[in-house]
Amino acid sequence: MKTIKLAYGETFLTAGIEEKRIKEIVESPLNSYRSGTDSLTLVQNALDDPVDTAPLSEIAKDKRRIVILANGKHRPTPERFTIPVILDRIFAGDPDADVTVLVATGGYGMMQQDALERRFGRDVMERARFVCHDVENPESMVQIDTLPTGTALYVCKEAVNADLLISEGSIAPHYLAGFTSAAMSVLPGIASRDSIRGAQNAASKEMAGAGVTENNGFYNDILFAARTAGVTFTLNVVLNLDRDIVFSAAGSLEGAQTACEEMLRTKCAISPRSSSYMLLSAGGAPLDHTFWGGLRALTTAEPMLEENSVVILATGCENGVGKPMAWQSRQLERALARSRIVCISEIPDDELADLGLIPADSIESAVRKADRLIGGEQPMTIIPDAASLIVS
Fold it and tell me: Could you report how far apart the first and last alpha carbons of the chain are, in Å?
């Protein structure tokens, strides 16, 4: 018997599965990687030895108004490590700096004071002014350019008016953008809803895939938006499945991005394979906060699925089904045309059934249902964190 652990919301699902039932376990090497250095030290070292820029403490000198773009609840970035150290370096350069932390909420809605305190810490919030980007307030935004894919780019005025704009965030494989990164703190982080929707609609026509950056319009849009908004210094962190920081790079937008991408290409790549029976996780919170967010697991797994396959999808969905974009609905339709999907989720059974999914309340229950669908106890491919993979 082998114990299987799947990321699920804020926790993990575990179950014992007989060895004979396991065809293979497909894991990103990243999730077992340990750097040998603690998270805080990795961030400090990155800020003190930046790529292609002077240290942040030097850059911050004599800057009248400094804005840090911080990730909101929709990203797994551990701000308890990143923001305090960024503030330390800024105030080392200018003890009187006027610092605003602009929480890049994207299209996910505002964060209330208690949620901000849980994420950043009350002591950290006393060191700077904290403001949430409000995607529903067009008066708070200004057009700064047009994206390469053709959409007008509107972003929060708070960022545009800064003398020094800093971005921070976690970087990981992403099914549309190639990679998430600190650059996404601008697009979608502080962009207007129309700018976000336009860029994502253009991206959905390409569906470039995780780790694909060449000729990726969404990837280019994201970096263009960050450059155009004026991001001068950036901090990227790489996380494993336990959300520990295992690598970090800071400095110029492109330099810090490239350093992390190179690391991820070596730690997340797997060779192509096929399966008719698959058990997979969407990667846990906040990636699986809604069903459509958790759909990225099926997007990653789709090239590996054989025709008439059976899939068990574990996705927490604490915020329910959510509202799909058109391309997400098409993605689900493609998956259902190819597979029957058993879903372990916090979503009510009737809502899952409306999506064409078969509900289950545990791994054990899901396996029993999937066995009936596939015609017996067949070996399965298990992917504990599909969101961390680059299929190459």
Answer: 31
pTM (predicted TM-score): 0.92
Strands 231-239 and 164-170: parallel
How far is 112 from 106, CA to CA, in rounded Å? 15
Q: Each residue of 352-370: b (16+ CB within 10 Å) or e? A: beebebbbbeebeebbebb
Q: Taking residues 41-49, report their average pLDDT.
A: 96
Residue with token string 């809604």: 290
If residue 306 lies in a helix (H) or strand (E), which one and from where to where? Answer: strand 305-314
* pLDDT tens column, 230-252: 999 999 999 988 889 999 999 99
Contact in structure between 159 and 227 (CB atoms under 8 Å): no
CATH code of the domain occupying 39-267: 3.40.50.11440
Nearest to 191 by CA among 158, 164, 165: 158
Whether residue 52 is predicted with pLDDT greater than 90 in this model: the reply is yes
Q: CB 52: neighbour CB atoms within 10 A? A: 12
27: left (phi over 0), alpha (psi -120 to 50) or beta: beta
Topology of the domain covering 2-26+273-391: 2-enoyl-CoA Hydratase; Chain A, domain 1 (3.90.226)
How far, in Å, are 136, 201, 324, 384, 390 from residue 270 at the CA level? 40, 28, 29, 14, 6
